[in-house]
């Protein structure tokens, strides 16, 4: 009965004049999300504010031979077999892969300022499987020039993504796990963020549930969701053998049985407590220790006996922290920024749609009409 009521509420919001986008965002965030792909076909365009005329355009043919991105896109799409439903006939899957290539090349052709990155196809294939080629093309045009714009710039691998990884580091900072993060960095979250978790989750239902949430919220919400996953797995991380490679492997493998609705609520709560503007101030006051590129992580991983280095540095930092807390009343009576993040992040919401989720909706509505987030 709850699902029937939600379907009725969504239908009413879509039938309103003008469409009640605020209600649609609340439905997308609330427990269970948008429920069906049929509903997503109607609601996702509204969440992205895609003009109705754009949804009616038939996809144009795309030239492949002289396209600078074609070879890389082809390789990535050929390696994307696991993203298609198991048991799908080869002929049908191959047809969808051709459509996937066309969508990517079409978006890049219309937006020459964008630069393709490996992992982009994992987001596009989700839209293709839910919406079909025509709608997926229109929505990926909007998504790529707004939510994903920071990933599709030529500076993605250096400055912008390093900044976002620092957001994650600050969000998930904890007096216990900070010693591990200082060595392992946050590159383990790279595939989570650049694919909107599409590459690392095997159950397609979980992927589209997260997309409901992300599309209804601020473009940086995937960062907050990544942070609450790390916080949720704190004990598991601390129980792991103190070896850099093992810790990185553990963190990079997301359990498939996560309590997604609870984590979505906690991510919304964390966003409300620490919006991007405040995180930016927190980051500016910390010296970044995150390994923001694969090169950095590879270099750290090739050092001799990284487990010994990690243990030694961890003991040194623990001793320094204990000494500081013993000698400073301030450090005992006033929670550090790290401990504030942890305390607030684990509070969560007791219901799927509470005050924090509503605040996320209200914040989203501030930028939703134009989505002009990255001038």
TrEMBL record:
One of its GO terms (biological process) is endoplasmic reticulum to Golgi vesicle-mediated transport. GO terms for molecular function: GTPase activator activity. It holds the Pfam family RabGAP-TBC. GO terms for cellular component: endoplasmic reticulum membrane. Keywords: GTPase activation, Membrane, Transmembrane, Transmembrane helix. Signal peptide: none annotated. The chain crosses the membrane at residues 177-198, 210-232, 344-365. It comes from the Eukaryota. Residues 34-218 form the Rab-GAP TBC domain. PANTHER family: TBC1 DOMAIN FAMILY MEMBER 20 (PTHR20913:SF10), TBC1 DOMAIN FAMILY MEMBER 20/GTPASE (PTHR20913). This is TBC1 domain family member 20-like. It comes from Gouania willdenowi. The gene is LOC114463593.
């Amino acid at each position: 009965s709850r699902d029937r009521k939600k379907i009725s509420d969504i239908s009413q919001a879509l039938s309103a004049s003008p469409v009640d986008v605020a209600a649609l965002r609340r439905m997308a965030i609330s427990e269970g999300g948008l429920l069906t792909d049929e509903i997503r076909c109607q609601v996702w365009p509204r969440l992205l504010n895609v003009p109705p005329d754009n949804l009616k355009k038939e996809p144009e043919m795309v030239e492949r031979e002289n396209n600078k991105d074609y070879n890389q896109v082809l390789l990535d799409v050929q390696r994307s077999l696991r993203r298609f439903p198991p048991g799908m006939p080869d002929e049908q899957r191959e047809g969808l892969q051709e459509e996937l290539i066309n969508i990517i090349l079409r978006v890049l052709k219309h937006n020459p300022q964008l630069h393709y990155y490996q992992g982009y196809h994992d987001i596009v294939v989700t839209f293709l499987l839910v919406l079909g080629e025509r709608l997926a093309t229109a929505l990926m045009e909007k998504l790529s020039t707004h939510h994903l714009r920071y990933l599709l710039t030529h500076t993605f691998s250096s400055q912008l993504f390093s900044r976002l990884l620092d957001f994650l580091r600050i969000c998930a900072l904890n007096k216990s796990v900070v010693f591990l993060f200082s060595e392992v960095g946050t590159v383990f979250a790279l595939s989570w963020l650049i694919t909107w978790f599409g590459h690392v989750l095997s159950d397609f239902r979980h992927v589209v549930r997260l997309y409901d949430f992300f599309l209804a919220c601020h473009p940086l919400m995937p960062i907050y969701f990544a942070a609450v996953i790390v916080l949720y797995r704190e004990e598991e991380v601390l129980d792991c053998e103190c070896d850099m490679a093992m810790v990185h492997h553990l963190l990079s493998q997301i359990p498939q049985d996560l309590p997604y609705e609870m984590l979505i609520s906690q991510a919304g709560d964390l966003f409300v407590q620490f919006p991007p503007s405040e995180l930016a101030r927190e980051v500016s006051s910390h010296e970044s220790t995150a390994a923001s590129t694969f090169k950095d992580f590879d270099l750290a991983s090739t050092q001799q006996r990284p487990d010994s280095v990690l243990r030694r540095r961890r003991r040194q930092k623990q001793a320094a922290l204990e000494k500081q807390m013993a000698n400073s009343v301030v450090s005992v009576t006033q929670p550090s920024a790290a401990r504030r993040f942890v305390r607030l992040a684990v509070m969560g919401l007791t219901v799927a749609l509470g005050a924090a989720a509503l605040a996320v909706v209200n914040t989203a509505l501030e930028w939703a009409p134009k989505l002009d987030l990255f001038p």
